[in-house]
Design brief:
By secondary structure, the protein is mainly alpha-helical. The chain has a single domain, classed as Butyryl-CoA Dehydrogenase, subunit A, domain 3 (Up-down Bundle). Helix content is 67%, strand content 4%. The radius of gyration is 20 Å and the shape is elongated. 4% of the residues are buried.
């Protein structure tokens, strides 16, 4: 999310509503992933012996959600940044010519 925001700031599009909406969607997706992983870790079911395993429902939900999440993250980055990473010119202030 930070990388996307820095890229949008560099291109000057960070104040656009669409860009802010896309960033909000990324924040929501990150929160959902954190919630799913927390649920898998903190609410397990008994396994073999004294072991524990994530509940099947939670693990299945995480698996289904994550298959589409990374594709959507990539789409958002491509949409918001467009050609920004390719076009952005780097500048080093230490290499001044006199």
């Amino acid at each position: 999310m930070g990388l996307l925001l820095k890229g949008a700031q560099a291109s000057g599009t960070n104040t656009f509503r669409g860009v802010q909406t896309e960033l909000g969607e990324l924040i929501a997706m990150a929160n959902l992933v954190w919630a799913l992983t927390t649920a898998m870790a903190m609410d397990p079911e008994p396994g073999v012996g004294r072991s524990v395993v994530p509940k099947l429902q939670t693990a299945a939900a995480a698996r289904v959600y994550m298959t589409s999440t990374w594709q959507r993250v990539r789409e958002i980055f491509e949409k918001v940044l467009a050609g920004g990473p390719i076009v952005t010119v780097s500048f080093c202030s230490g290499s001044q010519t006199t």
